[in-house]
Every structure is written in C-alpha cells, then in structure tokens.
Amino acid sequence: MVRLFNFFLLTACVPGLEGLNKHRGPASMSNLKVKRADTDLSDGESLEEDADTSKATRKSEKPKLVPSKKRKEPAECVLTAEKEASKVKNETGVKPKRRRKKKISDILAKSSPKPGVPEDLQKLLNEHFGAKRSVIELEELKLSDACFLPANDLTHSFSSYLKAICPKWAKIRKNHTEKKSVVILIICSSALRCLELIRSMAAFKGEGKVMKLFAKHIKIQEQVKKLEQSVIHVGVGTPGRIKALVEQDGLSLKSLKYVILDWNWRDQKLRRLIDIPEIRKETIELLETRVIKLCREDSVKLGLF
C-alpha cells in the first residue's frame, strides 16, 4: 500500500511523464522503473528505520525498575559501663556517682576496733605463705598458744603492759651483761612511733638502756658500733632495720626473751603495722627467718600490744 501511494504521488507531481516514457522507449522505461523501485525501497527502508527508532525510543522511555535495596538491620551493640555513664550524663546533665572504695575509717566507724590475738598473726602467716609453701613447710610456721604472751586488751598503757608480761624485769635487767644483744625487742611501723613508745616506757625501764633501731637519720654502721660497745636491754625499731642488723651480725638474738609487735596502733591514715604493705612484708620476713624458730624452741615469747 505504501508503494502504490508513492507511485501515484510521483505521477501526479510530474505531468507528461507518460509522454516522456513513450518518446524514450522501452529502455528508458525500464530504467525509470528501476529508479522508482529504488526510491520505493529507500522510502520503505527509511520508514522501517523510523519505526525501529521509534520503537527503540519507546523502549528507552519506559521507566526502568530499580531493584529495592535490602535495608540492613541495625547490629545490636553492647554499651560498656563508660558509654552508659556518658549517656546518662548527656541525658540528665549530672555526672553519675562512682562507687567509693571502702576505707579503713569507714569500717572502723561502723564497728569498734578489736584487739589483736594470736590467731590473727597465724592467719597473716598462712595468707602470705599459703600458695608458696608446702604443707610440711607451713607446719613449721605454726605457733602454739604457749609461744605467745597475753595480748593487750586495749586497756593497758605501754609501761603497764610491759610490767604485766615481765614482772621480774629488775632481776632480768641485772643479769643481762651480753653485748650486741637485747632482752626485749619491740617492732613498730615507723620511727615516730618508736620514739613515742620509748618515751612512754620510762616508768618501766628503770636503769635499763634503750636503743633506737630504725633508719631515720641513723646510719647502720653507727648502730652496729654502739651495740658492740654497750650493753643494751631494750631495742625499739622498724622491721627493715632490725632485719638488716641481724643479717649483718650487728645484732645478736642470743639473749632475746621477748618480742613485742606494736599490733593495735594506727597511724594518721588508720593503718596498723600489718596494713602497710612494705612493713608487713619486712615483719613477716623477720618472723620467718629468726623469731619463729626461737619461739618454737621456747626461748622467746611473742606479744601483741
């Protein structure tokens, strides 16, 4: 149909075409037919191309369906204690209260201080050596009740306590003539506490000589020299310096009769002798290396003041 339409359109636009065809003859007519066929083909091809391009444009104009992306589910997050605290702070504008560590003063405010007893010392030794020693070695560190002096019930002054545990002090003092040794050894947590106890035992010591056995402002060589030259009855000092003097053979324990631990006294921070890590370690080492053996041999008595 399209080709016929093109043919009629061509004949209408070119008048006298039939006359020309008659004058030209059959050859020209055949050429004309070929040209017409070519034009018809070209027109048909162009129409087909137009149809194809229109189809392509229609296809391109169709909206493409974009596959919907799957939404990722929010991962469950675990807030740490710090993040929770910051979250609370941001919401309320107030810092969350931190749990305050219990202090010795808080514990003492709720309950009155209890005097030290021999079981406390034995418990201290077991806690310190429990994981390090065998059962047989722990047995060697055990002290019977006969090794201990009566404990201070917090009603005694230092002089009255010494009089109670050593009623025959005057006789013992006179009989003691050995140098480099003492009869009573008192172990304190600090030099200031040593000086305080030395002043408070004035009513007990009588003519007995008392020596300071701590490291503050006193060289160990001076203490060794004084022990070698003099007869000392009572030694008051810290466990670290006493241990050093014994190890250097500056202090002998041959004449030793009593060892007193300043157990119940507390410093400004309300710490006892065993509450200060360094002092506790030195005290336990001194007891282990020297004192416990003498106590088990029944030559030395141990007291808790």
UniProtKB/TrEMBL annotation:
Compositional bias per record (Acidic residues), positions renumbered to this chain: 40-51
Family matches, as InterPro entries: Cms1, P-loop_NTPase
Highest taxon, organism lineage: Eukaryota
Keywords: Signal
Cleavable signal peptide: 1-19
Biased composition (Basic and acidic residues): 52-64
Residue segments, region Disordered: 34-74, 88-115
PANTHER family reported for this sequence: PROTEIN CMSS1
UniProt name for this protein: Cms1 ribosomal small subunit homolog
Source organism (scientific name): Anolis carolinensis (Green anole)
Gene: CMSS1
